[in-house]
Amino acid sequence: xxxxxxxxxxxxxxxxxxxxxxxxxxxxxxxxxxxxxxxxxxxxxxxxxxxxxxxxxxxxxxxxxxxxxxxxxxxxxxxxxxxxxxxxxxxxxxxxxxxxxxxxxxxxxxxxxxxxxxxxxxxxxxxxxxxxxxxxxxxxxxxxxxxxxxxxxxxxxxxxxxxxxxxxxxxxxxxxxxxxxxxxxxxxxxxxxxxxxxxxxxxxxxxxxxxxxxxxxxxxxxxxxxxxxxxxxxxxxxxxxxxxxxxxxxxxxxxxxxxxxxxxxxxxxxxxxxxxxxxxxxxxxxxxxxxxxxxxxxxxxxxxxxxxxxxxxxxxxxxxxxxxxxxxxxxxxxxxxxxxxxxxxxxxxxxxxxxxxxxxxxxxxxxxxxxxxxxx
Length: 376
What we know:
Strand order of the largest sheet: 7-6-5-8-9
Radius of gyration: 24 Å
CATH class of the largest domain: Alpha Beta
Helix content: 40-55%
CATH architecture of the largest domain: 2-Layer Sandwich
Shape: globular
Oligomer: single chain
Strand content: 15-25%
Structural class: alpha+beta
Number of domains: 3
Largest sheet: 5 strands, mixed
């Protein structure tokens, strides 16, 4: 199991899964190495989360005897996995979605810490994953004549996902035709290396697309590398940085790339906020209305949006601020202290993008802390 943020297709598949009864158990386990770096610390965290899961099943109202037994069996399987097979190598967190009756058991190793959570519902709780997926939209590729390093991340941090080393011989000290042929050989080896890096980068992109690409390294090599990139990648080029390819830490790479990342992220936010006035809606009530009508192209929230209490239809997923019955199908609604995750999941189900505003929070606050760009 690789450590990676989920891609958009995986998120949509999970968000679209809906059972007739609330039998899906969703768990998020924080494995931040700074706090849970030892086996005893991880064991304590696991036991605390399992206790919370068992309590949620016991206290869940309205479950039939069969449904409660199914959830208890799910908790037991989850406990076996977390206590005996917990995938900790390289993971800063784990998300796990399970339902014994539905044959669902999907653990995901996460590259960043998450808040411990347990939820029982008709479908997996994917809102926290969507926030994580948004943070992985940047890629940085460092290249030299024989080495390369690839990073993924966001303004909050980068993580190294691959290192590449190809053999490229040094200069020949003899003159004449031999030296000319050898020089041509060296240049071909360097070109082969850059193409190899480009192919690896394209594989990462196809597996989990990123939105922006920054290239770093010696100026001449970086320019040559950019010219060899596939068109999909050239379209995402966002700038160039000069850093030590071999020895720079992820923190140093981020520091070099940060000004360009901040500049483009701020521009992206400003453009989206301006477009709300042209073809969008603002305020949580109007945003929920657009989500329910499946008209949202981009859901825009304050990055620290605390959410609002509301209700969700137990059958069709309709979201509202109040009401005991769903206006769409008359089914009873379920109360939630925070509708944020429900709104994100509804956005994913209609293939909408998520934009969390962090640079111009005053502007989104003036629009009720929530907005949406509409398809029609």
